[in-house]
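User: Here's a chain of 559 residues. Predict its fold as tokens.
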Amino acid sequence: MSTLLKFYRPLFSIPYSTRTVQLGTHRFHCLFKPKRRIRCVSTSSHSQPSIGIGGKWESPEFSELWLQNTISRKKEVFRPKTEGKVGMYVCGVTAYDLSHIGHARVYVTFDVLYRYLRHLGYQVTYVRNFTDVDDKIISRAKELGEDPISLSRRYCEEFNRDMVYLHCLPPSAEPRVSDHMPQILDMIKQIIENGYAYIVDGDVYFSVEKFPDYGRLSGRKLEDNRAGERVAVDSRKKHPADFALWKTAKEGEPFWDSPWGPGRPGWHIECSAMSAAYLGYSFDIHGGGMDLVFPHHENEIAQSCAVCNHSNISYWIHNGFVTVDSEKMSKSLGNFFTIRQVIDLYHPLALRLFLLGTHYQSPINYADVLLESASDRIFYIYQTLHDCESALSQRDVVTLKDTIPPDTVNIINNFYNVFVTSMSDDLHTPVVLAALSDPLKTINDLLHTRKGKKQELRIESLAAFGKILGNVLSTLGLMPESYSELRDKALKRAKLTEDQVLQKIDERTAARKNKEYERSDIIRKDLAAVGIALMDSPDGTTWRPAVPLAIQEQQVSIT
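Assistant: Prediction complete.
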């Protein structure tokens, strides 16, 4: 696959910078500390205001939220356990390297769910963990000669920077494994006491045969879990599918004291312990990528139910993969692009728009042509909003009338109805993105066409469109903070400076004055080839980012 980006190779040394990155309002604080002993109860959340459309329009009739539930294999109406409150846990990254765009898809997906739940008026407690104790972290730390916890902490910070770039809101809590050993040890003790686990030479294993519902989430039968196929080979285990709750310490690895000897937790127990610590054993939503359905989430269910027979998570939600040439993007395959690589060339919200352009459950294939299209679309959205804001800034808002034309009301109501209906249908973001076309086109007509400029209550209509678009784009996490960055990224992809582009514009203007039209066309085409479009007007020639000509040809061949 031809691409502007090269596959990312793990960086074996990333110089640690003491430079502080200002995250503004994006703070990553734990809102409360869990108690040491985990009880068989659920906890509730803090409050967040809903986002209404404001103004004089009434919201459409409330549309029930439907979500695809992996455990039932069907779409279900969302009914929280506590009215008006939602508890949501999403499995976070194993922090040993920079995150790739497969990770970006997971956290953009659940950020949109988080935002939409708040839009609907729910108080949401959103917990997203960090795995900072793991074999991969230990292996990378050995390669770098670095302390594993220190290395993981550094990559946790890098991940949080990526989330800010992508406009992902900070969760209510971001617990780390290394900070929750007491909760993990308590849970393992309880599993052993309840007869679901056994000890072998300082290791503790969960006995899957003791849990009759094992396989309910994934649909796998116990006899399908053969050793060597996503389950560790170990002759000491009673069943090949038994999995480690506690691993005995190896020389040179970090360890914690336990009743079974020094060691560290297995991968799966951490999320059971931390979700219970922050949300209780019974909460609403547990999410992650579909690769976590088995074994991770299957094992979480078994562990949590082994501790508390009232353990119940209502909705298991999983997003599809990002693929490259129809193969899953992953670090193990080496066919991945980091978030940093992509946003070095494209605006971060172009990446977010690309990810939202496919329904979250479907696989999405990474290709330059799709990212260029997303970048072009995001520029169109922001250029329209920018022009609208400029027009409104020239008028005194106080003098605006409290009415808008019927045509404007109809477009706004239709758009908002599509937004609510589509988002409530299992977060159908592609439909919402397509529905942006009508209000955006109408804004541009009001701003730039002779007929639009003469329309009665034109400024009032622009204000109304700006408000509804702002609310919807905010719910999608697509409201811009930097308009100029889109142009800067386009120049970087074109390998040009703005001065060079302006010089080309001057050369073309001179060629046209001299009636050298062939020369003029060559300059335009040369710039268009690298994604710089020239626009002529009575006031002169300006430029804007565009899809490069070669990629436009790919788009035509695809369609």
